[in-house]
Amino acid sequence: MDRAIDVIYWNKKLMSALGLWPHQRNNLWFAINFVYFTFLAVLGYVDLFLFIDDLEHVVMNVTENLAYSQVFVRIGMLWKYNDQLGSVISDMTKDFDERRYESREEKQAFLIYNARSKIFVKLLSAFVGVTAPLYFFTPLLASLSKGQPRVETGNVTEILYQLPYHFHVFYTIENTRTYFLTYFFEMPFVYTAGFGQTAADCLMVTLVFHICGQMSVLAVQINNINVDPCNCKKDIRKVIEAHVRLLRMSKKVAKAFNATLLAHLLGAMTLICVLGYQILTVIIFPRLYGNL
């Protein structure tokens, strides 16, 4: 049971990276991250508006902006419902006391769901930790290995400085120094977006699996109730109180993450449509994208 509580410590580290851990909030650090993230996200939509006539550019921009809009909602909901989530986490921590479980069967029922939540946190953290930096550094590594792409317009050769994200830049990048400074300015976006997505999803799944585990424990307790009418009142009262407690926790979790799930649903559906369009375009016009 001592190792089972590790999942709470992992969530604490993820949320503290944005200053959002309910029991140790850092409003200044959160404000810095949130304002920075919002500013660049707005620049993404500015870029979309300016290149609205370029269909290929719009498709790439929408693909990115939908993902970042979902992260924006995740971070916003973690901040808005921080106090409610803090109360759920405090209540959840009590369930890691071995004295709350009367049998090995109850403990095992809880640990099964706890193990699943730990696996999810590990996999998602590793996935985002690899893909987010890789996506960010790909244009830079390509330019260092192959050089910057060039476009010839008449007798003029123009160098295209490729940045990792489709954010509007208010100035012209004409040399390597400006390019690297711009690239460096966008680097913290990887940190904020990565932790914003990971912290929200990991906390939601951890809380859901925890409630499921406690429901499983409750089912075991119901099966083990003493059927003797003279001795079952205490057991029945205990089961009812535990059920009411879990219902209250689940309502708080649902309220905190309903907007996040809605944004994820709408964003995922739109991304599927965009990716389907890209696949069909590659199949129909293979010469524009290279042979399959």
TrEMBL record:
Key words, A-Z: Cell membrane, Membrane, Olfaction, Receptor, Sensory transduction, Transducer, Transmembrane, Transmembrane helix
Compartments, record wording: Cell membrane
Keyword tRNA processing in annotation: no
GO cellular component terms given for this protein: plasma membrane
Membrane-protein topology: Multi-pass membrane protein
InterPro entries for this protein: 7tm6_olfct_rcpt
Transmembrane domains' residue ranges: 28-52, 119-137, 189-212, 256-285
GO process annotations (BP): signal transduction
Domain of life, per lineage: Eukaryota
GO MF: odorant binding; olfactory receptor activity
PANTHER family in the record: ODORANT RECEPTOR, ODORANT RECEPTOR 19A-RELATED
Protein name: Odorant receptor
Species this chain originates from: Odynerus spinipes
Lineage, top ranks: Eukaryota, Metazoa, Ecdysozoa, Arthropoda, Hexapoda
